[in-house]
Amino acid sequence: MKRKLYKTISSIICLALTVCLLIINVYADGAVNWYCVHRKDHKQPIIDNTLSFIEDFGGYYIDKNHGDDCDDKVIYLTFDAGYENGNVEKILDVMKEEKVTGAFFILGNLVQKNPELVKRMFEDGHLVCNHTYSHCAMVNKSSSEIKTELEKLESLCNEQTGYDMAKYYRPPEGKFDRDSLECVNNLGYKTIFWSFGYVDWENDKQPSFEYAKNKILSNIHNGEIMLLHPTSSTNAEILGDVIRSLKAEGFRFGTLDELTNEKIS
């Protein structure tokens, strides 16, 4: 009896510690680390009520107009691109061949070192969006500091490519707070989070092709905003297969302009 009681108490303590750690992770230093809860059977993920304020400041993480029961099946391909290692160009080649477009959230480094690659993104019909100039978390920053980060990248991109960036923003590291979202919203940006992502950014720890394809396809849901890193050699190899598999399942690929129901580029 005592052993059972001790086991119950231990379970309760472990659960409480887990909850406390989650709260610390989410709210440390006044910042929030983006996350959503995945569900089985290809249902749309959900977010905690404490994160719902993102929608008050032009934030999106999923297409609610294309829910679980919607016959029109749509996926939004988005990429966080900070540099080129040969794989970004491969990703663009695959997307051109498959005749699909997406959104690339870029950094200043990519524009400085590979302006022709960024120019190609525009000319291939992709949206080129703002991931900040330096990839510094925008939490606990003044409005002027945030504005400088965004506008510095906008100016550089226009100077180097001749094109204007779309007014979409993704927080570096997925880290944000209420003030930063309000600031970028006041600057005319929509903040784009994601409803699916996986550990694909570590170049020396790339997942196998089969693991990655299974991870992506087993978590597909309607209205999904998919986050991939185009520097991933695995993603460069499997993207064509993934796109063809999704097309075979009846999915089409939408744009962020469609997602936000307005053209703001």
Give your account of this protein's structure.
- By secondary structure, this protein is of the alpha/beta class.
- The protein has two domains: 1-30; 37-259, TIM Barrel.
- It has nine helices and ten strands.
- Strand 3, helix 2 (87-98) and strand 4 (103-106) form a beta-alpha-beta unit.
Number of domains: 2
CATH superfamily of the largest domain: Glycoside hydrolase/deacetylase
How many H/I helical runs? Answer: 9
CATH topology of the largest domain: TIM Barrel
Low-confidence stretches: 1-28
The value of Rg in angstroms is 20 Å
Give the biggest beta sheet: 5 strands, parallel
Average of the residue pLDDT scores: 90
Count the strands?
10
Helix and strand succession? HEEEHEHHEHEEHEHEHEH
CATH architect. name of the largest domain:
Alpha-Beta Barrel
What is the strand content?
5-15%
- Reading off the top of the CATH hierarchy, the class of the largest domain is best stated as Alpha Beta
Structural class call reads alpha/beta
Distance between the termini: 66 Å
Shape: globular
